[in-house]
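Researcher: Go.
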Amino acid sequence: QIIKSTTTIAIVFVLLHQIYQKRNYFPSKDDIQNRAFYAAAKVEKKGPIGVVYYFLALVCCEAIGMTTLPIEVAGGFVFGLRKGFVINAVGKVGGAMLAYSIGRTFLASRIRSKFLSQSEKSSKKDGGVDNKSRQIITLVQTCINKEPFTTALVMRFSFFPQLFKNLILSAMERIDWKLFFVVTCIHVLPFTLLFSCLGHDSALRMRIPDLEKNRILMACVFISTMNGMFGGTSVVAFWYHKKKNVIKH
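Model: Structure:
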């Protein structure tokens, strides 16, 4: 333990020392602005090819579960609000549909056996912990059969990682691609509008510092704040509390 602690402290000290020595190399505000304008101009010069590169990058990031926030903000910054929102929306939903298609076509059986299995063998092996997890899984599967839209929508707004949600929903037989597409749009589009609007507003303010307040951006921020306070975990907790009696009966 002493050796590990000493090694960790030494590594942290070396890193801090290197950062201190290179503190003058950190970009200033003007450098960041110049680089942002340069990157935007470079993408715009590529024309349709630049749009295709951007779109494919967004689709791939969404499909493999990486965060797409900086990419979507960059889309609004480079392409403007309307064009950026359309490209971001199609790319974001397209990436989720790609993950769903891969999960449904190639990974469905593995996902069911790994996460949706309720075999007695696994319950005996893992004891009480597995019994609790099986209860939650039973609730999800039961509600999916009876209320597929509501349950899928709750899953989309849950706190689980994006890739996990896409793959879990792809393995459930009651969730066809049409239903997955609808709940994904409901979940994705408000945030996509927020990020696109944020990028567009940032580009305008870099050119016009005294720009008036953006009402669309303020409305999107308010809605996302309310969702952060009362959505996600709260929605899942309320849904579970309401539906848990299904298992008892």
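Model: The CA atoms of residues 112 and 171 lie 6 Å apart.
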